């Protein structure tokens, strides 16, 4: 794979999760553009730089040792990528502090470099949280590949930061350069909330939660078919989002034990709040993680999953396939993985390669609910 070369460093970078012969690289032209732009600013070495939504550490690892760098984002895999890429390039795994997006990085910062995220609500929340954390004369620079750069990103910068100027395109990437100007103190519109009838619960959703405004149609199809009579089974909600599958299941299975995992810190934050609101002090484990990678083998009887079909801007079934493999490792013999998926994705065939039995629990015109037994 090619090296990331910038005025700050030459780095050998890998993506997360690691994939054999991965055709994708861990950086792109927008990372190079941001680093070249920052080099032209000739900031003092003592400058404090905040990096937001760094995919796998390309920006933060490049700047480490040149400035005081803090990284923040909503992806556990991105945080893991930063640690691994720091080590891979001869630096300490903790050389750059990482702040989950569920927390607010403490400034003041002299410069903020932003990779524009897929979810503009996350960008809006991050810009609002910069209030009071920017040094006088600070610059806020957002970058993205042009095909992933909506007009609304520039509008958000102007609304919350100050006048914005778009750069020329370089290698199909563009920067949005905002000059900090006094703005009225903004109140965040996040988290949002919506209610369900069955089960009768209210769900809180922080800015980067999937289907933040209402229940996604796949989960809606899944809810009536969650397994019942689980006794004291150990159950995981894999890719839990706001926790709705686990909460609905727990309300039907009062003695079951639940673990909720997601790679989004804001999803985990939302799920923990929703569990407490619906189930009060009932014991639960909620954690940000690389799926079930940290789960002990043969430690679960049931896994519930509404698998993703994209990672950031990349569409594919690699993450779903990996989650199925993780579920198989974590399940006891005889344990079961329950999933919902679009019918055209062919998950039945994929699951049959891993599990000894796969059955259709239910089908709708768009979705299929499957049970795969180890």
UniProtKB/TrEMBL annotation:
The record ties this protein, via Gene3D superfamilies, to: Vaccinia Virus protein VP39
Q: Which residues form the RlmG N-terminal domain?
A: 2-181
Q: Where would I find the Methyltransferase small domain in this sequence?
A: 201-371
Gene of origin?
rlmG
Q: Which Pfam families does the record cross-reference, listed alphabetically? A: MTS (PF05175), RLMG_N (PF26049)
What does the similarity note say? Belongs to the methyltransferase superfamily. RlmG family.
Task: Give the enzyme's EC designation.
Answer: 2.1.1.174
Q: Provide the primary localization.
A: cytoplasm
Q: What's its job? A: Specifically methylates the guanine in position 1835 (m2G1835) of 23S rRNA.
Entry protein name: Ribosomal RNA large subunit methyltransferase G
Look up the domain of life of the source: Bacteria
Q: Which reaction does it catalyse?
A: guanosine(1835) in 23S rRNA + S-adenosyl-L-methionine = N(2)-methylguanosine(1835) in 23S rRNA + S-adenosyl-L-homocysteine + H(+)
Matching entries from HAMAP family are given as: 23SrRNA_methyltr_G
GO-annotated molecular function = 23S rRNA (guanine(1835)-N(2))-methyltransferase activity; nucleic acid binding
Name the GO cellular-component terms.
Answer: cytoplasm
**Where is this chain's protein located in or outside the cell?**
Cytoplasm
Q: Report keywords, A-Z.
A: Cytoplasm, Methyltransferase, rRNA processing, S-adenosyl-L-methionine, Transferase
